Amino acid sequence: MAADDLQTLAALAGAAAAGAALVVDARARRAVAMLAALALAGAALGLLAHEQIEDAVSPRPLLAAAGGALGLAAIVALAVLFRRRPAALPLALVAVLPFRVPVTVGEETASLLIPLYGVIAAGCLAFALGGGDAVAEPRARRLRIALAAMLVLYAVQALYSTDTDQAVKNLAFFYVPFALLFRLLLDVQWTSRLVLTAFGIVAGLAVVFAAVGFFEYATGRLLIANSKLLEANDVKPYFRVNSVFFDPNIYGRYLALTMTGLAGALLWTRRPREGIWIAAALAVLWGGLVLSLSQSSFAALLIGLAVLAALRWRAAPVLGAVAAAAVAAALVVAFAGDAVGVETGSEESVNRSTSGRVNLVTGAVDMVRDRPVWGFGSGSFRAEYREREGVRSSRIAAASHTTPLTIGAEQGAIGLVAYAFVLWAALTLLFSGLRAAVHPQAPGVPAVARAALAAAFCGLLAHTLVYAAFLEDPLAWTLLAVAAAVPLAAREPAPAAEGAHGGARLAPAAA
Fold first, then answer.
1. Whose CB among 100, 122, 124, 209 lies 3.0–4.6 Å from 243's, allowing a Cys bridge?
2. Apex 175 CA angle, 174 and 177, nearest 5
3. Whether 452 contacts 264, CB under 8 Å
4. Who's near 233: CB < 8 A, 6+ residues apart?
5. Could you report the per-residue pLDDT of 305-316, keeping only the tens digit for each?
6. DSSP states of 214-281 as a string?
């Protein structure tokens, strides 16, 4: 059997194990599934990048062995820590969530979430050793089944993909480890204090990332090189920053979702001093978002804020305002597009103004039309698009930035049904009983946290419609897992200070 077939089968088996980890409640079986998923995903990557691994290891085998042993020791040490202190696991996960390390796999260099993978592996090992509590959250069962179905379907459709290497990378780097991330976070006993601490870490990191963006803008230098971004900054009249992220749009997404959470805290807090600190943090993050110049992130923020406003006040006026704003924006683009940098004179001018998005959309639609039922296979869009459109230059974008179109082109109607099932399960879980929970004058930390998570997920969903990366982003899995695990009512009595003021403290560490 060829190495390509072996790596695909290993990825398929790893996806099946990760799917089992999502739906199985029995501790022993789930522990086996988690460890098997990690091992099989690693094996698939090893088969995919065996030449690069050999080239890196052969010159210095002892150094490579020492590095591997050190990494394994770190994972074991973290597992021991998580077994003794289960609350440290979710805090570690959210702390390492945004950090990426450039790694060469196959013929490409990608920015991978290496620290996150290590913490996930340690969390799975801790669970297998008996650390933490196995919580069967009944509200999330439908969502767990939907995610498992989409994961396994993606793996099965990799068997006939025109780009199996990309499908294996997506499974091993994203789908499998993030499914385990979801399960680990779902099992956490989310108390109000833990929610506050976790969000404080996220908000604090976002402020630091914004400060890095300010430094890049002031110096005119990017800390993490991105060739396309560097070229754009050289020829455009503006300078975009990416902070510690490779892509300014991913950087903007992180800031926009964090700002949505802070806005939720601001809407429900009853403490003037706390409101001042939250507003100050929002101002800093807004500056960072502006310097990213990520239009998709601005849209994500607006959607998140609209959802929060609809939950906080009456929904009808908010929806009316959103509809009016959308109509006004469409009229501006249609009749005064040049004033906002969007040329509408022809399809080609619109394509230039949107960095080739028109060609990508029409190419994806053609692929869907040719294979409407089963598509061209998981991970195939880029290779198939380049082949069909005759794209040879690496400078020309060939990755669809619209998640439904990508799924339709790669997985056909079958994949779109699975995608719709995930969205339905996610949105019903997020909003079921939420409006009633946040309606009281002092809804409490869990209810406000759930509102912020629901709004942030809606913003992320909007972002994926124009910049893709839905289940390939750990933020999507994290938002859903925490929202499913956090109850609408506190599991423990509220602190005396909170009860006295009747407010929800959601971001003490953001200040």
1. 209
2. 70
3. yes
4. 222, 239, 240
5. 999 999 998 878
6. HHHHHHT--SS--HHHHHHHHHSSS----TTSSSHHHHHHHHHHHHHHHHHHHHH---HHHHHHHHHH
Q: CB neighbours of 491 closer than 8 A, spacing ≥ 6?
A: 189, 190, 191, 192, 446
- Length of the chain as a residue count: 511
Distance CA 293, CA 341 (A): 13
The pair of three-digit structure tokens given for residue 282, joined into one six-digit string: 């929002």
Cα distance between residue 142 and residue 126, in whole Å: 26
Look up residue 19 and give its two tokens: 């799917």
The reported pTM is 0.89
* Average per-residue pLDDT for the chain: 86
DSSP state of 184: H
The two structure tokens encoding residue 160: 């006939």
Say if residues 47 and 3 touch (Cβ distance below 8 Å): yes
Q: Which element (helix H / strand E) includes 329?
A: helix 315-336
- The DSSP annotation for 432-491 comes to TTHHHHH-SSS--HHHHHHHHHHHHHHHHHHHHHHH--STTSHHHHHHHHHHHHS-SS-S
Task: Please state, in angstroms and rounded to a whole number, the distance separating the CA atoms of residues 468 and 89.
Answer: 28
Q: Which two tokens stand for residue 346?
A: 């022809």
Dihedral in degrees, nearest 10, Cα atoms 348, 351, 357, 363: 0
211, amino acid identity: A
Q: What is the dihedral of CA 199, 200, 206, 212, to 10 degrees?
A: -160
Answer yes or no: are the C-beta atoms of 383 and 343 closer than 8 Å: no
User: What is the SS3 assignment for 103?
Assistant: strand
Tokens of 156: 């099965």
Residue 142 and residue 492 in contact, taking contact as beta carbons nearer than 8 Å: no
Residues 158-183: tens digit of each pLDDT: 999 999 999 999 999 999 999 999 99
Q: Which of 105-119, 183-197, 400-414 has the lowest mean pLDDT?
A: 105-119
DSSP string, 406-442: HHHHHHHHHHHHHHHHHHHHHHHHHHTTHHHHH-SSS
CA dist list (Å): 94 to 157, 201, 492: 31, 7, 23
On whether the CB atoms of residues 253 and 463 are closer than 8 A, the answer is yes
Which pair of tokens denotes residue 200?
A: 């404080």
- Say if residues 483 and 176 touch (Cβ distance below 8 Å): no
Q: Is 390 left (phi over 0), alpha (psi -120 to 50) or beta?
A: left
Asked whether the beta carbons of 206 and 456 are under 8 A apart, the reply is no
Q: DSSP letter at 494?
A: P
Which residues, at least 6 apart from 175, have a Cβ–Cβ distance to it below 8 Å? 15, 18, 151, 154, 155, 471, 472
Who wins on pLDDT, 135 or 409? Answer: 409
Q: Which of 53, 55, 43 is nearest to 3 (CA)?
A: 43
